[in-house]
Write a structure and sequence with these properties.
The protein is an alpha/beta fold. About 60% of the residues lie in helices and about 10% in strands. The protein starts with a helix and ends in a 5-residue tail after the last strand.
Length: about 450
């Protein structure tokens, strides 16, 4: 209802709170004048005989009638400031009510509508509880001033009759003003609760959108890591095999054919893995999840690297112990990426792989020589592969350091705990990469 009225007023060009209050003041003024004139007609009718008036009686003179109408309009005009100065608005309308009751005869009691609206406004817009205090003070002030000015005749000259009439007028004023102020305070409280609820909903929406955006970024990072792990390793092997086949095609055709067969096998495996990843990303029910690599697959990974022409030396220190599947997958993917980088940036150079099982963690070290001018040898920013390895390490509570050693070799060092943390969904830090790294 309120929103409908506001839309109508907005269509008429009234869009501010002061403008709406001015419209309300005009409506209250018209209603007050109409009510007073209606009451006056009732008093001079047959029904008014019960009050000592009736047909032909003069209730108010023309001058008094004009004064009453002026007071009613002035009271309504005070409502223009009911939001900004609610207590002052109430005081002004009560002063007008006292003037009305002082002008009118004792048998004609008229409560101006503006006083009720101002009492409601005090409860709705004044600071909490102050509106109720102002309404009670207005009621008491109206009753006391009315009797002090002699606006209402008493029932008799005895003190008991006078006290009864005074207390009745006071209770009537208190009921009138306090009820209006309580309604206003109820509306204000409800409005405040609704505003707070809307704010909570908006905050929840913003938090939900932020979480959704964070989840999207995290999922994009995971997708990028999976695609990089699946494609980069095999494609780098294909490039190396193709270069070897090109050199052997004239000297050793049979060996060149063997290299081509390996290229075909690796290409087929790459396509199968890419189809699997794409199927999982699409959420296709037909794509069955393949078993993830574990540390048991490390020998096969090293054999593939050797078959591609790399010289890989593998060493294990300590007694191996079981790791959680997520940690095993991280170790496998980091080793896979490190071997791919070694084959791509230092082809034909030996690669040393060391796995050290300690009491609380596993340390994987991959070391290979790189020629001068190779990517990363100048100590620039880390590539996507190194960043992806660091993110994987952080997700299982581990650390990764990658960089050049003083002797010019490139080393990747991964440290993972024996037991993975329960949840590492926070954004991982970038891996430690330096141009010169201490062994």
């Amino acid at each position: 209802m309120t929103l409908t009225l506001r839309r109508w007023l907005a269509a008429l060009g009234v869009r501010t709170e002061t403008g709406r209050d001015a419209v309300l003041a005009g409506v209250v003024a018209l209603v007050s004048v109409a009510l007073f004139l209606g009451v006056e007609r009732v008093v001079v009718s047959d029904a008014g005989s019960a009050f000592g008036a009736g047909p032909g009686a003069v209730v108010v003179t023309t001058g008094e009638r004009v004064a009453v109408l002026v007071v009613l309009v002035a009271q309504a005009a005070c409502l223009v400031v009911r939001r900004r100065f609610p207590v002052m608005c109430l005081a002004l309308t009560v002063a007008g009510q006292v003037a009305l009751l002082a002008i009118l005869p004792s048998y004609l009691s008229f409560q101006a509508p503006a006083t009720l609206v101002s009492a409601y406004s005090a409860g709705a817009y004044a600071p909490r509880r102050r509106g109720l205090v102002a309404a009670a003070a207005a009621a008491a002030g109206q009753a006391l001033l009315l009797f002090a000015l002699g606006g209402v005749g008493t029932l008799g000259t005895s003190g008991a009759a006078y006290a009864a009439q005074a207390s009745g007028a006071l209770l009537n004023a208190l009921a009138t003003y306090l009820v209006a102020a309580l309604v206003g305070e109820y509306v204000a409280t409800r409005r405040s609760l609704l505003t707070e609820l809307r704010d909570r909903v908006r905050r929840a929406e913003r938090e939900r959108e932020a979480l959704a955006a964070s989840a999207v970024l995290e999922e994009r990072g995971r997708m990028a890591r999976e695609l990089h792990d699946v494609a980069a390793h095999h494609l780098s092997g294909i490039v190396v095999q193709a270069a070897a086949a090109e050199r052997l095609v004239d000297r050793d055709p049979e060996q060149a054919k063997e290299s081509m067969r390996r290229i075909r096998a690796q290409g087929r495996e790459t396509l199968d893995n890419l189809r699997l990843v794409v199927g999982l990303l699409r959420g296709s029910g037909a794509a069955e999840p393949a078993p993830q690599p574990t540390l048991d697959d490390v020998p096969a990974l090293l054999d593939d690297a050797r078959a591609a022409g790399a010289v890989v030396r593998d060493e294990v220190r300590g007694d191996p112990w079981d790791l959680p599947p997520a940690v095993q997958l991280t170790v496998f993917r980091v080793l896979q990426e490190a071997l791919s980088n070694a084959r791509r940036h230092g082809p034909g150079r030996p690669v040393d792989v060391l796995r050290e099982y300690g009491p609380t963690d596993l340390v994987l070290t991959v070391r290979n020589a790189v020629p001068a001018g190779a990517p990363g040898s100048a100590g620039g920013p880390p590539g996507h592969g190194v960043i992806g390895m660091g993110e994987r390490a952080a997700m299982v509570g581990g650390t990764l350091a990658a960089g050049l050693l003083p002797d010019g070799a490139w080393r990747v060092r991964l440290t993972v705990p024996r037991s993975a943390p329960p949840d590492r969904r926070a954004a991982p830090a970038h891996p430690s990469t330096t141009g010169k790294e201490n062994p």
